[in-house]
Amino acid sequence: MISKFFPTVLFILLNFVTIAQVRTVELISDGWKFQKGEQSQAHLPEFDDSGWENVKVPHDWAIAGPFEVEGDGNTGKLPWKGQGWYRKTLDLPQSLKGKRLYLIFDGVMAFPKVYINGKFAGEWDYGYNSFYLDITDFVNPEEPNLLAVHADTRPHDSRWYPGAGIYRKVQLVAVNPVHVDIWGTYITTPIVKPHFADVQLATTVNNFSGQEKEVKVVHMLINAMGNVVTSKEIKDLILADRQKVLETTITLANPRLWDIDDPHLYTVKTKIYDTNKLVDEYESTFGVRTIRFTADHGFYLNDCRVQLKGVNLHHDLGPLGAAFNKRAMERQLEIMKDMGCNAVRSSHNTPAPELLDLCDQMGLLFVNEIFDKYDAKAGIVDTTDFDDFTHRNMRNFVVRDRNHPSIFLWSVGNEIGDVQWNIKGGFHKLRTMINYLEKYDDTRPNTLVCDSKQSATLGHWKYYDVHSWNYGRRYSLARQLEPNKSVIISESASTLSTRGFYEFPLPEDKTAFTNSLQVSSYDLNAPYWAEVADDDFMWQQQEPYIAGEFVWTGFDYLGEPTPYNNKWVKEKGMTDKEASRSSYFGIVDLCGIPKDRYYLYKSYWKPEETTIHILPHWNWSDRVGEVTPVFVYTNGDCAELFLNGKSLGKQCKDPKSNNSVERFRLMWKDVIYEPGELLVVAYKEGIEIGRQTMKTAGEPHALRITPDRIELSADGEDLSFVLVEAIDKDGMPCPLANEELRVKVKGAGKLLAVGNGNPQSMNAFSSETVDLFFGKAMVIIGAETAPGEIEVDIRASGLKSKKITIKSK
User: How does DSSP classify residue 472?
Assistant: First the structure.
């Protein structure tokens, strides 16, 4: 049987007609068919896919589960290993006849093979990288065209949950035979002065017309207000079926600089003319800024020193999985920025391009990292030609991203043992990576992220620009051997905790993990190879040449559940079932609910904003009369603690202590628990800056429902993250509530996912039920494409609840 092509035909046709004729860019998101597993002949147009699942791209085939309870916690206990097929009908209008057609895939996990009308059109290997194909010779305008994509994750290796399938967007680009190449503009600002900046433009123009062409290129520089501030025209001859890089320099008067506090962006609108006929139009954004590292004083942006207050972020979006969603990513960045974060490291892979757009717009600096290891985690298998692989992937990585002002450092890899120790040609591989990186961009410094301290004696630091080291002051030897390079703590802390969970007594050893399978939120635990957050704060105070840190990690993520992985639980006499499925590293949990540690970072990173946070909660019916330590995280330097009106004394931070936690926390370690009210009064330089209370809550009485947004765009992509909490009759949060929630959504939206931040939970993210975890859970609502009201009804047995309404416009 022939598949039913026609329902999507009118949709695609109308979208092409409404876009300017010289260049059309179409998102290929709706109308896909998907089936997991081996599907013989699925690339052929006549294959019957009528029984396949209807999906929308981006799509992660594994995130809906179910969880593999006895599976590998290191990759999230989700069914990501396997193969899957996607099919989509493209019906191209006659107006595209004679055009050049490209498909751009932002990311397919993994080893995608692409077929058009039954013919093999191209393939890729590295699942995190973007790639594109010229499909001009494979399609037939005015006829249904079958696009089939095969993804195979079986050869891929991973240390965390990688997702599966076409998990980032797909675009169809149609251009005239003479056009700007894919990612074809390269914009640099080699000279930046207060009164002018030289903007260098290198534009790659393709001529596939079959004859030589004299082209005219007009560049217009447009500021953030939409005004054309300057322009320039150049002409050149391009031979038939060749491409040429056309270069020019435009002087921009009185440039407004891109900065973390004022992320101003310019746009270059490039118009290509063939004999005075407009044949292409292309836009690129960029920022004017200067960056430099100094050996003794760290990082400078626009000649001002900036201490990097960074986080590492994995690519998954918690309960939403690996399928990229711009709003979910924007929310992550907003939460981090509100904490005082000013930088992000993509760990450890090519990010979605929208993440870089967001960092440009929000004023966040970015370390752009391409690989974790040079093995199957990067799509490198036994038959891979390393030089060819490196060239292809590094070109796409750099050429796609090099105009982003947020990027201040390239990273060619993370913790690669054979490279650091020069095993099996490790240094040769490193040189190959750096050489190809610098071929496509030499305007930024580059680095290799290292973790084997003694490997510095072999001198791998000679090949890159910045010392980047993970944990435990491992940078010290490299700094001693080469003191003329700056230092970044590329992974700091790796402190472990579970939101809302506390254990007693306080651990004397950071690696004292218990069979509870949760980690105490007193923030004193870390793996043997890492440290608590305060240590990194102290080291940066003691060694001001350090440019800054990137905390492992900003958010909890799927996989890597240190310490409670499969190996640990079996060593303790348990089984694979007890291994967790997500990490404990995050400053916030998997759903984006802040842990206590969030306020420790905020108190230090954002000292200008009042922060007063008390921990633990004060519901301990089984601890009356027992020692229950109280910590306070504040930007103040001292505080007084009261329990039921009685002063428990004043504590002050000790800036000279070699015990790091005494520098940055206020701790009352001998508090005897009694129910009631804790009150803390915080001071800075002797002046009260605020008060905070923590009360013993009563029994759960009702649900409090708090959406992060009550108005959405009816675009099929927008989201509202709805926080659900149990409260007592006085409105106090109930920190031990664990009731099951039942969720129903009606109207112009849908329930996308649920979660609660519990690394042990095997409840499917796609479920309509979720348990409160230490009193809280998250419900994620997605807008449909039709405007209207979204009614969200969340209930729990025995608790008063109410419906909320979210508007989608």
Answer: T
Q: Which of 376, 425, 368 is nearest to 400 (CA)?
A: 368
Q: Tokens 């961009």 identify what position? A: 441
Mean pLDDT across 527-539: 98
Q: Report yes or no: 718 and 712 within 8 Å, Cβ to Cβ.
A: yes
Q: Which of 456, 453, 374, 449 has its CA nearest to residue 414? A: 449
Cα separation, 641 vs 773, whole angstroms: 28
Q: Which pLDDT tens digit goes with each residue over 263-305?
A: 999 999 999 999 899 999 999 999 999 999 999 999 999 999 9
Q: What is the pLDDT of residue 21?
A: 76
Distances (CA, A) of 27 to 94, 126, 285, 558, 591: 19, 22, 20, 28, 28
Helix or strand (DSSP H, E) at 689: strand 687-695
Catalytic pick from 68, 283, 334, 415?
415
Tracing tokens 């759903």 back to the chain, one arrives at 591
- Angle 485-491-493 from CA coordinates, rounded to 5°: 125
Instruction: Give the Cα separation of 313 and 553 in Å (integer).
Output: 6
Q: How far apart are the first and last CA of the chain?
A: 40
What's the CA angle centered on 622, arms 618 and 627, to 5 degrees? 65
Residue at token pair 């500021």: 223
**pLDDT digit string (tens) for 696-711?**
999 999 999 999 999 9
What is the reported pTM? 0.96
Q: Which residues contact 225 (CB under 8 A, 6 or more apart)?
A: none
Residue 802 binned pLDDT confidence (cut-offs 50, 70, 90): confident
Q: How far apart are CA 560 and CA 549, in angstroms?
A: 21
**21 with 3: CB under 8 angstroms?**
no
Main-chain dihedrals φ then ψ at residue 20, nearest 5 degrees: -50, 145
* Crossing angle of helices 353-362 and 386-401, rounded to 10°: 40
Rounded to whole angstroms, the Cα distance separating 596 from 613 reads 8
Instruction: Determine the 3-state secondary structure of 699 from DSSP.
Output: coil
Q: Identify the residue whose tokens are 């036994």.
A: 382
At 1, the pLDDT band (50, 70, 90 cuts) reads very low
Written as six digits, the tokens of 342 are 């000013």
SS3 37: coil
Active site residue 609: no
Helix axis angle for 326-338 and 353-362, nearest 10°, is: 40
Catalytic entry in 369, 491, 560, 725: 491
Residue 194's Cβ-count burial label (10 Å; 0-12, 13-18, 19+) is exposed
- Contact between 432 and 419 (Cβ < 8 Å): no
Helix H or strand E segment including 188:
strand 178-192
| Residues contacting 99, CB < 8 A, separation 6+ | 136, 174, 175, 176, 177
The Cα 629–Cα 670 span in angstroms is 6
- Is 281 among the catalytic positions? no
Q: Residue 719: name the closest of 558, 594, 592 by CA.
A: 592
- Give the bridge partners for 291, in sequence order: 301
For 161, 405, 602, 775, the CA distances from 352, given in Å and listed in that order, are: 16, 16, 27, 33
Distance between CA atoms of residues 628 and 667, nearest Å: 11
Closest listed residue to residue 325, CA positions, set 360, 364, 361, 352 = 352
> Which residue, chain included where needed, has tokens 């891929």?
156
* Strands in 538-593 per DSSP E: 546-552
What's the rounded Cα separation, in Å, for the pair 550 and 545?
Answer: 15
Q: For residue 538, what are its two tokens?
A: 């102290």
pLDDT value at residue 591: 98
Q: Please confirm whether the linkage preceding 505 is cis (ω < 30° from 0).
A: yes
Q: Locate tokens 């046709």: which residue?
A: 13
Q: Order of strands across the sheet with 119-123?
A: 53-55, 32-36, 83-91, 144-152, 113-116, 119-123
Neighbours of 689 (CB within 10 A): 17
∠ at Cα 529 (528, 530), nearest 5°? 95
The residue ranges of DSSP E strands in 319-443, in sequence order, are 343-346, 365-369, 407-414
